[in-house]
TrEMBL record:
Main location per the UniProt record: nucleus
Database matches in PANTHER family: MEDIATOR OF RNA POLYMERASE II TRANSCRIPTION SUBUNIT 31
Task performed by this protein: Component of the Mediator complex, a coactivator involved in the regulated transcription of nearly all RNA polymerase II-dependent genes. Mediator functions as a bridge to convey information from gene-specific regulatory proteins to the basal RNA polymerase II transcription machinery. Mediator is recruited to promoters by direct interactions with regulatory proteins and serves as a scaffold for the assembly of a functional preinitiation complex with RNA polymerase II and the general transcription factors.
Protein's name according to its UniProt entry: Mediator of RNA polymerase II transcription subunit 31
Organism: Apiospora aurea
Length: 128
């Protein structure tokens, strides 16, 4: 079953959500904005990226399109809501690349990213 903010629920041509308003529809008690914010921030965790890869989500075209849609978090006013903008946005950027989506299944890459945080993802880019 799709949840709000999941690839099945969001029309990719739909505009990004506005920050929560009083009258906005809720999904399980949360606004679309809150759900997408929580999900995009989870991308800062390389172990979560590995989990997504292990579940084969990173090879699903709909999920890949959803990751592309989430690029709006790179711009104001959304950027200011991110707790860890560096690794969050760097990993979101890397997830746009098929090679990274394939290689994040590797425990060595996950550990490299975890050990170096943002430096690890920058190093991975240099190796391309």
């Amino acid at each position: 079953m799709a949840t709000a903010g999941s690839p099945q629920d969001v029309n990719m041509s739909q505009s990004p959500p506005n920050p929560p308003a009083e009258n906005e529809p809720k999904y399980g008690g949360y606004s679309r904005f809150e759900i997408e914010l929580e999900f995009v921030q989870s991308l800062a965790n390389p172990f979560y990226l590995n989990y997504l890869a292990s579940q084969k989500l990173l090879s699903e075209p709909t999920f890949v399109a959803y990751l592309a849609y989430l690029q709006y978090w790179n711009k104001p006013p959304y950027l200011k809501f991110l707790t860890y903008p560096g690794p969050t946005l760097k990993h979101l950027e890397l997830l746009q690349q098929e090679r990274f989506r394939e290689e994040i299944i590797s425990p060595e890459l996950v550990q490299h990213l975890a050990d170096g945080d943002i430096q690890g993802s920058l190093d991975w880019l240099k190796d391309e």
